[in-house]
Amino acid sequence: MAKKALVLIILVMVILVCLHGCKKSSSQSAPADQGGKTAVDYEAEAESEINTENMGDELDRIEGELTQEESEMP
Questions:
Q1: pTM of the entire structure?
Q2: Across the chain, what does the average pLDDT equal?
Q3: In which domain, by residue range, is 48 found?
Q4: For a tag on the chain, would you pick the N or C end, based on fewer CB atoms within 10 A?
Q5: Residue 72: inside a domain, yes or no?
Q6: Under a CB-based contact definition with an 8 Å cutoff, are residues 58 and 50 in contact?
Q7: Which portions of the chain are predicted below pLDDT 70?
Q8: Is residue 24 one of the residues assigned to a domain?
């Protein structure tokens, strides 16, 4: 009986140590902003640059870029 109690106490202590070691520290700094554009940024940029007068030209430009990228692929 004493052996089971000792094993149980040791098991509880090991679990408590593991749980304590898994806590996240609040002193960690937040990751630095990479400075890249998000989808929202690209959408806002497109809305400000593309309008009904130049949408055909923009479409032709984008299609040309895609065609060029396809031709550069092996």
A1: 0.42
A2: 83
A3: 39-74
A4: C
A5: yes
A6: yes
A7: 22-33
A8: no
